[in-house]
UniProtKB/TrEMBL annotation:
<feature type="repeat" description="ANK">
    <location>
        <begin position="95"/>
        <end position="127"/>
    </location>
</feature>
<protein>
    <submittedName>
        <fullName>Uncharacterized protein</fullName>
    </submittedName>
</protein>
<feature type="repeat" description="ANK">
    <location>
        <begin position="29"/>
        <end position="61"/>
    </location>
</feature>
<feature type="repeat" description="ANK">
    <location>
        <begin position="1"/>
        <end position="28"/>
    </location>
</feature>
<dbReference type="InterPro" id="IPR036770">
    <property type="entry name" value="Ankyrin_rpt-contain_sf"/>
</dbReference>
<dbReference type="InterPro" id="IPR002110">
    <property type="entry name" value="Ankyrin_rpt"/>
</dbReference>
<dbReference type="Pfam" id="PF12796">
    <property type="entry name" value="Ank_2"/>
</dbReference>
<feature type="repeat" description="ANK">
    <location>
        <begin position="128"/>
        <end position="165"/>
    </location>
</feature>
<keyword id="KW-0677">Repeat</keyword>
<keyword id="KW-0040">ANK repeat</keyword>
Amino acid sequence: MHNAAALDDVAAIRRLLAGGANIDARDESGATALLVATHGNKVNAARALIEAGANVNAKDDIQDSPYLYSGARGHLEILKLTLAHGADLASVNRYGGTALIPASERGHVETVDTLIKAGVNVDHVNRLGWTALLEAIILSDGGPRHLRLVELLINAGANVNIADHEGVTPLQHARGRSYDKIAALLEKAGAK
């Protein structure tokens, strides 16, 4: 099943399932076939597995699930499938972050928009002490994609004054990196 998923081989997946294969069987890393398909962004295999009832929230040994991984990597089609089939919006990765946080760091604008519309908590704080807004600033290049992400997060009601564990606010981080356009957005939203 895992090999069929990696190869995006829908016919093989259907044959294996019809023969009684366990749809959520794990490999040596704890990954299900759906997570293998998600890793490779194999949309057809993912769709076949999800529609057959694969668990979109099943985590591997490093706490990745098809939902979390597709969100973090910007695999938008698979993410949308997981959201339509019971994704746990409150589930967290090994860093204690929701899918929104790494998506914001990596500049996946459509993914962030999709997650916000799905209802993910925009102010969730991970174990590093960072929100999606902080990661969109701290771990970004300050370019157009991250500017758009900051705008999306602000429009979604993100608290622009949640500081990191050291007490540094998003505005202070933006100014410290000379991200003037991001700083201006934050100021307009009431950032201190």
